[in-house]
From TrEMBL, chain A:
It comes from Ruegeria conchae. One of its GO terms (molecular function) is amine transmembrane transporter activity. This is Glycine betaine/proline transport system permease protein. GO terms for biological process: choline transport; glycine betaine transport. PANTHER family: GLYCINE BETAINE/PROLINE BETAINE TRANSPORT SYSTEM PERMEASE PROTEIN PROW (PTHR47737), GLYCINE BETAINE_PROLINE BETAINE TRANSPORT SYSTEM PERMEASE PROTEIN PROW (PTHR47737:SF1).
TrEMBL record, chain B:
This is Glycine betaine/proline transport system substrate-binding protein. One of its GO terms (cellular component) is ATP-binding cassette (ABC) transporter complex. Keywords: Signal. GO terms for molecular function: transmembrane transporter activity. Residues 1-19 form the signal peptide. It comes from Ruegeria conchae. Residues 28-302 form the ABC-type glycine betaine transport system substrate-binding domain. InterPro entries: ABC_Gly_betaine_transp_sub-bd (IPR007210).
Amino acid sequence: MTAVTDTPAQQVRLTAGAQAALITVIVGAVCLALEGVAPWLVKWPAAWELPATQWVGAFLDWFLNGIKPAMRLFSDLMTYPMNAANYVLGNTPWPILISIVTALGWYLGGLPMAALGFIGLSFVLASGYWAESMNTLALVAVSVPVALIMGGAIGILANEVPRVKSFVQAVLDIMQTVPTFAYLTPLLLLFGFGPVVGLIASAIYAAPPMARNVMLGLERVESEIKEAAIMSGGTRLQQLFQVEIPAATTQIMVGVNQCLMAALSMVIIAAVIGGFNDIGWEVLLTMRKAQFGESLMAGLVIVVFAVVIDRMSGTLATERKRYDSRVVWAMLGFAVLFTAAFWAWLPNPSELTVLDPMAGAIDSGLTAFTQANGPWLDALKNNSLFYVLLPLRIGLDQAVLPFTWGFQWTPSMSWGLFAVGAAIALLMAWRGHLTGGLVVLILIGMLETGIGNLPWPFVLTGAAALGWVAGGWRLAALSVGLLCTILVSGLWERALLSLYLSGAAVFFCAVLGGLIGLASAVWSPVWTVVRPICDMLQTIPLFVFLIPVLMVFQIGEFSAFLAICAYAIVPMIRYTRHGLVNTPEEMMEAAISSGATEWQIMRDVRAPYAAPTILLGLNQTILYAFAMLVIAALIGTTGLGQSIYLALGQADVGLGISAGAAMAILALIADRMVQGFAEERRKALGL
Amino acid sequence: MKKLSVSVLAILVASSAHAADMGAVDEPIKLAINEWTGQHVTTHVAGEMLKAAGYNVEYVTAGMMNQFQALADGDIDATLEIWSSNVSDEYAKKIDEGTVVEIGDLGLDAKEGIAYPAHVAELCPGLPAWEALKDCAQVFATAETLPGGRLVDYPADWGTPGADRMTGLELPFKAVPAGSEGALIAELRASTERKSPLLITFWQPHWAMSAYDVQFVELPAGEEACFNDPSWGPNPNAVNDCDFSPSRIFKAGWSGMEEKWPAAYEILTNYQLAVEDQQPMMGAIDVDGGAVEEVVAAWMAENEGKWRPVVDAATK
């Protein structure tokens, strides 16, 4: 809905945006008018649905059983490194492990890194989850190399064979957007039970960032370097491995860093399957008992690992100076001596309970908070539901009831609303904003019907129109084609519910995140406070947040909405701030010298320049919101996320994969459209 | 009565059986550890019995829903607390394939029902009689369920028994699926702490029953006829107008187990655990913070008479 292209009213030829909006309005109006005589226009009849989920299931059963022996062999092979990593990490005395990490920190980043490693691991030790953490680390230690090799190979392949590049991009998108829960059942069938499944799942999720960065890095190798390699007469392999990859190292290291983070964020999913006693399993157990303090502690262990790994591997991507390696040897030597000297007195790390009182305090703090603030929190929830979320989902015509708004919605009110919408549209068209006016009319129509009840022809036309404006007829065709697969597979209603919930969350995140980003950009103390919160929101296992949200707001859509927002708002904040802060100096100087005020600079220079970056942030927010839908289903939403859990419970491979695919389709379409608009803005700015 | 006959049967089987072959004693028997404490207790007691018989036992964590593939492949050898109320469809598939076999009831006497924390009785006088809910629905109403009351139901993947009751009994309640067990507990906890109204689908044995003083609504008895014959029960036009049918809790094993460890198979088949034994152990772990190994070890030492005969019958 961002394509607000201005059209002078006197001009007869309509712009692309106005044409698209006009067609959408007409289709919407026709659907509304015929609602009574042709109900199939609004709700896709069940008789037209194909048993697609069953077909998918049958095909996958056949396919999976075919490749099962090979995969089982792979699984058996992977247990060796897995057991080895487990054995080494599990049996190394903790002082030695702490000193190794501290020494590594020193080697990579000097004193601050060493301190980070030491404090971080000391926290893990004090939490009493040492043994479980080591199991988690063992999983990461094996899955990351697998992901790196996989991602690296994909990236190099795409670089060497340019024809497959767009296909590879699509595959990477699918790997990142289909929720892991959707393919857990087939993975279990293929690889058998145990940690190997978790390992594969995290490798699948962690490989794409590596592949993307390898592709980007190789692409950016300067042509002079490549030519020099060709002239020196090396084979293609020699050129690649001895010249191009080393030249792209910095970018590839960014990939390694992202890959590590992604792998770590998946440990909790691996725990859902079970197979070994890791920190994710602890989070699940405490979550099941709704013990917020304990699950926060277990979750923080993962955050600590994430921060330590992130900062340390982050130094790999930047040029760094060398630190004295004698210090490394001194630290290791001291640790060995310490361990040998105090061997008999070393406490068993599983019995440490230093942080237990803290967990208890957090838990009772939550209780006190809910008790003290119950009434106004309830009021907040009810008002948000009555006046915002319910109308969005089922439309004003059904949400406005004597119980909620105090009066009953009548058809004449609908007509009144449409009349107001038409008046606004006419006024805007007269003032020269035809497209804007039409979009307002569409939005008012959507509010009256509710996203959950939108007629399917309207949704298809709307998607086609947006796709056409954002990226031409190819994107329009792609959007419609993909949406049709959801329509005939019988998952349409659930998809609309998912669309509504994530759409509402994205809208809220875009507004609030944008404002926070703006505040952080203009006033740096805000950013000092916001940044660590953003870091934590992104790395802590999301399950942990569900408990306090549930305690305060109970099961239901509002809780799910908040949980999604808590996660999806982060990229919006980050990218908005980043875009606004990084305006090129010369543009700023020109603006200042022309005597613009601070506010004028923000509005006329910084904001337009930052627009592509902010749109990229919006794109990430959309993807994050869809990713969170599955987790939100744990607090009782009814969209595609719930279908995925149903499929998991019934071991219904077809339903799981289809629902996962539907989710990925929605995310992909949204993603391509936003990228299309961002591209347009970038061209307009001459970037 | 059913429970009694089962245990009598178990004793008969145990006493009449000849000592079975021990089988592959060197290889560990892998028992599944699922997500809830009661199951940990059940499994550790069984594991200790196998150890007492001379076996090696390994405990393997496994998601309740995902464990059956592992059981079929022999990656796990037995899982000892399956609730008929929320067993996944995959279990039935594996039973049909013959890769997983059921190895008898556990003997835990479970109850499911519509429940509420004790303080709710003050908000809706007339509870625990179910008829009271007819007039109290307003008390339980929330934004999502207006004008009806709100019933927190099981997560959707466990089925919708609560919603079925509300329809059957024509109670003005809308069932909201919880999404996860953690969500159910959070609801109970928030309701108890804030003294707010709550109607929830719940079950026992569960540690939260005592921790939040949860009471069951008294519904007409869940007889077989109620689920087939609409005319049965208070609502002449609907089925499900009664309490839950009693759920069965049973054990299952890998199909190759009987051959590989005959004596262990016999022990697990005859193994029984009563609510009176399990519930205090759960309390000792979840409420008093004990470790499952220690709590089970203490129980084993005190109650040797309850488990030793089963082990002896299979091995001597």
